[in-house]
Structure formats: structure tokens, C-alpha cells
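User: My instructor asked us to take a sequence, write out its structure as C-alpha cells, and then describe one feature of it. I'm not sure where to start. Here is the sequence I was given:
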Amino acid sequence: MMKIRNLFLLFFIFQILQVSAQDRVVNFNQQYVNSNNKKVNIEVNEVQELTYIMMAITDYGRKDSNMVDFNTDYYHSIIEKFSPYKDHEAIKTINSLLEKSLIYYILISSNAYGFEFTGDTLARTHVYTFPAQGVGTIEIQEDPIWQFKDQIEDFAKTSGFRGFYNNNKPYYEKLKSDYVKYGAILEQKEWLEAKFDYKINSYRVLTSPLIGGINATKTFEDNGFKEMLLYLPRIKQRQEWSDEFNRAMNSRVIFTEIDHNYVGPLSAQFKDKIDAIFHRRDVWVDSTNKSTNHYPNPIKVFDEYLTWGLFILFNMDTENNNEPLLKEVIAHVDGKMKQKGFPKSKEFNTELVRLYKLNPNAKISELYDELLKWSATQ
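Assistant: Let's start with the prediction itself. The C-alpha cells for your sequence are:
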């Protein structure tokens, strides 16, 4: 368990596993497509919020400041309101799952999005059905929300969760409006789709004031319609940062989640070249840094370099030649990547920027050959 906990000391991106073709995990009917096409939706989903609260009051959650954001009045209010129910059977069950693997944090919260309340009963939405069947090497055969449905329903009813959720709707609306004001999500979507030959019809941000540093993203497709789910923390403002750098850092948290959904399909087209170059892990990762265990193969290593590097290019194009801000962004990206165990970030990003400046109108696919040629020389 300690090994897994150490892997989460930094900010990580989790790609929820692809599920087998025979399992229909989404149902985008024509009404859903018409309602959501070309939209960015932001939610604090009721059933997900229930699971975040339940995980936050477990013994495990009370000790893990990376899993749970402790730094809000809201967190203290949920501790005051729900701690008297910490010995409920549902909380004991969830604590045992988290003790088994921290991955259950994602498996529980992600699958909660497939449910809604009908009175005091949890019912399937029939839009998302068992959307998270695994992360990394861990796979599950049964949806934990369905498996422990009776316990979860009883906890929600006994603790008065639905009343608490309704009372906090003004706060949740503020969280959503912060995303609109500071997240620049539509701007990111437009930039990425101009730079990649890959379109995603709908972005759906699923946020919570309790989400800490563990975040996830996955794109689902059905009926010719693609929707990306993004599990992201609240927008944060740091007093020591300028307004423009705060805006940039909040958009970075979102951008480096979103762009995996674009980089992944493109990198798959260059897999042989990437494998031949990035198999030299001693060059590209610091293997003494345990966080690099989450990037076990060449294409994951390359994609991590590129997804962070693209945030620099995004800022070059959208910040109106604001050189002081761009320098701050580059220093931040290089510093975070080095901290995560990617020692060549500065050199990689310098080459990426050089290539992009030669043709700022280029698609990202047009940079791959030269970027990989440079990478082979390292």
C-alpha cells in the first residue's frame, strides 16, 4: 500500500482503461447528441459528490491530503456533518476498498456518474453504465456502486446527504462559474481541434470541492458522438501569483488532462518510431523517482513529455506574445516535469518550441518526424 501512496504524492493523470467491445458502457441516443453537441458542460454531480464525501470521512481519506482537498470551509463542514456516520457499514466498505488500492478512488467516483437519485433510491441513468472498469493494471468485474448500492443508499438516507447537497447548490454553482471564468476550456478545445485531426463533440467537466491531486480523463464514443469526461479539482487562486499566472496555472491543470485525448491517437500512428527511441529509459526518465512507474512503456513516456510541452505552444498562441508570462509557464512546466521524474523536459520543450516557431500554423502531426529525429540524438 505504501508504494501506491508514494506514487500519488505528485499530480497524476489517469487514463481509464478501454473496455471490451461487447460491453456497452455508454448510450448516446439522438436526444443526448442533440443536447450536448459542441458543448462544454460543468457539473458537481450529486451521486459523485456523495461518494467523494464518503471517501473523505473514511480513516484512509482523513489521512490523505492528496486524495482529498482539506483546504476549504466546505471540507470542514462535511467532516462536521458526516463524521458521526463514519462507522456506517458503507464507510467501512469504502475504506476497505481504498486500503486495498487507492485506484478505487477513481473506480468508485467514476462509476458513480452512471447513477442518479430517484427519491432515496439509486437508479442507473442509462447514459453511462459501468464506465470505469479499470485503471492501469487493476481491473474490476463488477461496478462497486451497484455492488454496494443498498449500503450507499442507506448511508445517504441516514446521514441526510440529499438535503446537504441541495443546501450547498449555491456553492456548487460558484465552482462551476469559476471554471467558465478561469478555465479557458472552450479556448483549449478550439486550439486543440485546430492543431489535431481529431474532434471531440462534447467536454464534460465533473468537479468537486473535495477532489485533491488525483484526476482522470476518458473519451467515450457511441452513435457517432464522442464525449470526454474530465474529473478535475476546483479552480484555485494563489495569492502570491499574478492574476494572469493564476489563470494560466488553472488552465494547465485542465489542458494537460484534455490533450492526452488528442495526443494518444496521434502517437499511436508513430508507435514504432517512438518505441525505438524512448525505450532508453535511462535517458528519458529518472527511474529512482517512483512516480515514473506509472509510465511503464516508451509511448507513455513520450506522450507525457509532449502533453506538457503542448501547453507551452498553447500559451504562445493565446497569450498575445506575453513574454514574461510565457517564461513563467515554461519554467513551471520544466520544473514540474523534472519533479515528476522527466529530466529532459527543458531540452525537449526547447526543441518543440523551435520547431513550432518555424511554422506556427503547423498541425502537431507535422512536428512529429522532426521532433522524433531530434529525440533519437539524445
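For the description part of your assignment, you could build on this observation: Residues 1-22 have pLDDT under 50 and may be disordered. Try explaining in your own words what that tells you about the chain.
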